[in-house]
From TrEMBL:
Protein's name in the database: Ferritin-like domain-containing protein
InterPro entries (UniProt xref): Ferritin-like_SF (IPR009078)
Source superkingdom: Bacteria
Amino acid sequence: MSVEALLNTQISSGRVALAARVALSQCSPDTECPIYLEALDQALEDEPPPYDTSVYADIYEKAALSGRWMAVSLITNAEREGDGAKRLWSLAACSPEPTVQHQLKCHAVDESRHALLYLALLDLTFPGAADPAFRTDLNRLSPKFALKHDLYPVPGSPYAKKATIDDFLQMNIAEIRTTIHHIMQRPAISMHCSPDAHTKVASIQNSLLRDELKHVAYTAVLIEQIARELPRERVNALFRKRVGDFNRITYSELGGTGLFDCSVACCARNPSCRATSQEHVVPATSNFAAPGLPVLN
């Protein structure tokens, strides 16, 4: 199963399950995770993610027509990647298992680099959009971790603890969700950037996607390994709960409009459920203020 299958699919629903399977297919040697995939599929059926629908994709596409929204979205991505890097760094520092510790450390280094890559996309897509002082400040969103650095728990971090299956489930869902957003972001960025920047932009995007899928895969494998020693019902229930939690985060980002208040499966059976107007609803990028950005069309 190729990455191209994920990028080129013409449907906006079913991409969550596809992303997980594509990620695992990239592992070498081939990796089978039947417990993980069964739990994921059941969770998706019980708690259908709004970000795995054509409605959400349409909302994102409309929002991304705004250059300012797209620019702030890239800054928000950088902010979230930098924050995620610090969480992972703390988890890695407290991991007693060398292999897991190394995986978490590599993940933290990736996220730290991603923060800078999203800022590079900002520069390439909207050159000069941020005033120099503000743009310099944005570089601080990345903790600039490297594999050569010694691990330490970030002071005050609630993630200074041994990672559990619950942590890996949340990482896995978050990485899949980020992958879906990344896929939607690709054509939006292409629409705003100049033709001479397309090659550099595509190179960065390919690097980001490779890493996201790698993170989906390694967390899936860890979930599979731990789940073998746990009651299947417990694993399924926890997966379902965490998918539901991320759904609620997504509802909140959409502004609590009620667009996805009932299940997506219900709406598929009853189209009238989606009578709420979608015209002015856009996914929130975050509360990050960007005073150094001019008004972009």
